[in-house]
Structures are given as structure tokens and as C-alpha cells.
Amino acid sequence: MFAVGWGANQFSPMLIVYRHELGLTAGEVAGLFLVYALTLIPGLLIGGPASDRFGRRPVVWPFVTLSPLATLLLVLGPRSLAVIAASRALAGLCSGVVFGSATAWVQEVSPDDGPSKGLSARRSALALTAGFGLGPVVAAVLAQWASDPLVVPYLPHLVIGGAAALALGHTPEGTATARPGALRRHWPPAAVRTRRFWLAVAPASPMVFGSVSLAIVVLPEEVTSARSLSAGFAGLMTALSFAAGVAVQPFARRLRDDLAGSVAGLGCATAGAAAGIAAVGAADRVLAGAAAVLLGLAYGLCLVSGLRQAEHMARPDERGAVIACYYALAYLGFGAPYLADGLGALAGKAGAFVALTVIIAGLALWTAGYAASLRRSARQPEGDTIVRWSPGDCNSASR
User: Fold this and answer.
1) Where does the pLDDT of residue 393 fall: very low under 50, low under 70, confident under 90, or very high at 90 and above?
2) What is the pTM of this model?
3) For residues 259 and 244, what is the distance between their CA atoms, to the nearest angstrom?
4) Residue 358 — very low, low, confident or very high, per pLDDT cuts 50/70/90?
5) 108 beta partners
6) What is the pLDDT of residue 362?
């Protein structure tokens, strides 16, 4: 997960380099984002159920191996837009297949009860966050100061990706083994068809990657002029946001109520977007950095909370499929830069962040209200039973 996350996100600060070196238009830059998403979502929705049926390693291993090959394309064709697009498409497919399946795999080989409750969700989130954060930071530093900014930034991932592929050969298989009928079950999986998934999990999901995309894509461009854009500043914003996301994950794991993590994450996202209003209005990089920290906290809280809820709701034979559906919703957040651009055209740069603040605050209020209603219903006794609310479900115990 760390290696594929590195390969997926190392490209983010390189967009600035490509824009300068290749003279790309805004439409071509947006297209490079789009081609990644077009293959990532199908990869998620196919890879998760496939790993439920065939086992985790047979599905994950080939795409971990393909991830450094996607990077190799960038090294071999650094000035070909077609080659760059093909690389991003392959990287998106690898990310989609690996993230959902590997998250389920981590849960199956991690203790997740007693004192270790929530450990698997934190491990998955930490591996993904570390890859997402370190990849672009290293790429940005090398792009800023290396002799060949279109090639050298990608060399570390070739080593890391190859090492990860070798390491999987010694990783124990999870509890998911071949289940011939798994893909013939109803789609979407049972947990995704519940009210709880759509009313509690889904609203906060897009803010997982929506938060960091505002921090690492939108704010660096909005607070600097076209002449002063630098891969180094984009790398700094990435480091701030993902470092905050890593730092808050132990706290998110200790929360007894998973929805409390979502509410706290959405609260941080609201504060981060509000700080973005001032940062954009004053073109202040320090304020932008503060907003990046808040948005990174939102990312970490929402990711751990969402993964824990998805894991608790999923049946063992549908774990990969449910987590894949969760990631698919989370990746919708990468549309935030397009939303910000559209709102900016209507209301100006600062006005776009005002609108985003209002939208995110609405999601926070909704999730807080739904969490409160769950607690109220859990405290109401039914007949001869006492209903106790727990993070994954409602458990009944005889009086």
C-alpha cells in the first residue's frame, strides 16, 4: 500500500514541472487527472470483489508489480503527453485494485479486538498516508533541485516498488481464500445497501481526499502567481497536510465512536476551508500552510473513521468489496479542485472557499445529527432487552 500510494501521488507536484517544461494547457493538466480517475474507480470496483473470490495475494501482487512499470513509462517518455497519460492510466488501475484489496488483507492479518481495536484501520491508513505524503515530497524536492527534473524524481519509486513486490512473496495470506460464488452475489454488497452506509459513512467519504486535494492542488496555485509557482512549495504543502494526517491517526483510533471521528474530521475540514478564504484573499503562504494542516487533520480523521466503519459493517466474504466501495466514494473527493474552479468562476477565488466552507459545514452538521440519533435509539430499551451501541453495529444483551 505504501509503495503503490507513493507511485500514485508522486505525480502531483510534477504537474507544475510539466506545465512549465511542456507548455501544457489547463485542459491537458485536467485530462491527466481525469485519466487516472477513469481507471482507478473500475479498478476498485473490480479488484475488491475479485480478491474476495480468489484471495488477496493473487489479486494484489500483479498490480503491485505493475506500479513501478507505470513509473518506468514516465522515465522513458518524459516529454510525450501520450506516454504520460498511459502511465497515469496504469497507475490508476494499480491503485484501484491494490487499495481496496490490500486494506482487506491488512485487516485479516492484524489483530483487531481487545486492546488492539481499530489497529487494522490505522495500519491501512498509515501505510496509505505515508506513501501519499512521502512520494510527492521526495518528487518535489528532486524536481526542484535535480539536474533532470522530468526523470530523476521518479527513480526512488522504481526501487521502492520493486522491493514491495519482492516483500509480498513472504506475506501471509489472509482469511480470504478462493470462493467460487463470491462474484455471483448481489451487487453492491449487503453492507453498502444499508441506510447506515449511505447516511453515516457516505457523506464524509469524499472529504478524505477532497481535503488533501484542496491542500496540495488548489491552495498552492491560488496563493502564488504563475511566475512564482514551484514544485518545492507544492511539496511543502503536501508534507504539511499528510504529516498532520499521520499525526492524528492514533487519536482517531482511540475514539470509541467511529462517527465521532467523521464529525471531528469534517469540523477540521470546515476550519481548513475557512482558513483558505483568508489565505486566498491575502495570497498568504503562511495562512495556506495553516489551512493545509487543518485539511490534513480532516483527511486522517475521516480516513480512519470511514475504514473502521466499513470494516465493521462488512461480512468476511464481502470485506474487499465493501472497502472498495468506500474508497470509490472517498476518491470522488479528487473532484474538489474542479468544484473549486467552477465556484471560482462564479464567485471569485475567495468566494469559492466561502461556498466550500458552507458545504462542508453542512456535511458536518448532518453527520453529527445522525450520530446523535443513533445514540438516542441505542439508549432506548426494547421490551426485555437493553440495546448497547457499539462502533460497528447495535448489540442486544438480555437484561
Assistant:
1) very low
2) 0.80
3) 20
4) very high
5) none
6) 95
156 pLDDT above the threshold of 50 = yes
| pLDDT surpassing 70 at residue 42 | yes
Find all residues with CB under 8 Å of 126, minimum gap 6, and list them.
246, 249
The three state secondary structure string of the chain is: CHHHHHHHHCCCCHHHHHHHHHCCCHHHHHHHHHHHHHHHHHHHHHHHHHHHHHCHHHHHHHHHHHHHHHHHHHHHCCCCHHHHHHHHHHHHHHHHHHHHHHHHHHHHCCCCCHHHCCHHHHHHHHHHHHHHHHHHHHHHHHHHHCCCCCCHHHHHHHHHHHHHHHHHHHCCCCCCCCCCCHHHCCCCCHHHHCHHHHHHHHHHCHHHHHHHHHHHHHHHHHCCCCCCCCHHHHHHHHHHHHHHHHHHHHHHHHCCCHHHHHHHHHHHHHHHHHHHHHHHHHCCHHHHHHHHHHHHHHHHHHHHHHHHHHHHHCCHHHHHHHHHHHHHHHHHHHHHHHHHHHHHHHHHHHHHHHHHHHHHHHHHHHHHHHHHHHHHHHHCCECCEEEEECCCCEEEEEC
Angle between helices 206-213 and 258-282 (to 10 degrees): 20
Longest CA span, the chain: 74
Matching residue, cell 473549486: 340
* Cβ pair 199, 77 in contact under 8 A: no
**Residues 295, 269 contacting (CB under 8 angstroms):** yes
pLDDT at 85: 93
* CA end-to-end distance (rounded Å), the chain: 45
Q: What is the pLDDT of residues 87-128, one digit of tens each?
A: 999 999 999 999 989 988 888 887 665 555 667 778 888 898
Q: Within a 10 A sphere around the Cβ of 359, how many other Cβ atoms?
A: 17
CB atoms within 10 A of CB 60: 27
CA 299 to chain centre: 8
CB contact burial 185-224 (16+ within 10 A = b; e otherwise): beebbbbbeeebbeebbbbbbbbbbbbbbbbbbbbbbbbb
Short-list 221, 258, 255, CA closest to 370: 258
Q: Flag whether pLDDT at 399 surpasses 90.
A: no
pLDDT confidence of residue 388: 40
Distance CA 286, CA 275 (A): 10
- pLDDT grade, residue 380 (50/70/90)? low
Degrees, nearest 5: CA angle 135-324-252: 65
